[in-house]
């Protein structure tokens, strides 16, 4: 490969690695997930169109919620660290606090916000006269899955217990008892 191309690639990688904040990484991942997951869901040919649309919108909404939360908690925790840490620890401490903020967002804040926000939003998108269509989708999906792949019925065969008399003569049971040292 050309050395000029390798040098350019090396410079790009070094530049990306110099100012690599955890917030930017997780925001990039969330953006890709927000685009790819709904796209792949819609491309699934085995699933019903209504179910695909519902799932794709739900996945997209999750990432729409996640991106600003990652940014807010990541940057907010870094600013908080810069405010309270001594000068010699500010640079490294800010990035560490940013990572902690991003992790807290992923573990606690985003799942909580999604639980609070997505259900009401999906009910607004998919609402019928009887109530939330989202709950109906869950019932339909389960029923369709059972039609495609019915649960196997357990097969019970009664056990035939051997009697002591059936072991006589096999060497397993000897009516006169076992001798010490014999097999």
In short:
The protein is an all-alpha fold and 183 residues long.
Please count the helical segments.
6
How would you describe the shape?
elongated
Order of helices and strands: HHHHHH
Cα(first) to Cα(last) distance is: 74 Å
What is the strand tally?
A: 0
Structural class estimated from helices and strands: mainly alpha
What share of the residues does DSSP label as strand, in percent? Answer: under 5%
Keywords:
single chain, 183 residues, mainly alpha, 70% helix
Task: Give the helices and strands, then pairings.
Elements: H1 3-18, H2 22-42, H3 49-84, H4 90-125, H5 133-148, H6 164-167
Helix pairs in contact: 2-3, 3-4
What does this entry look like structurally?
The protein has 183 residues and is mainly α. The protein has one domain. It contains 6 helices and no strands. Helix 3 (49-84) packs antiparallel against helix 4 (90-125).
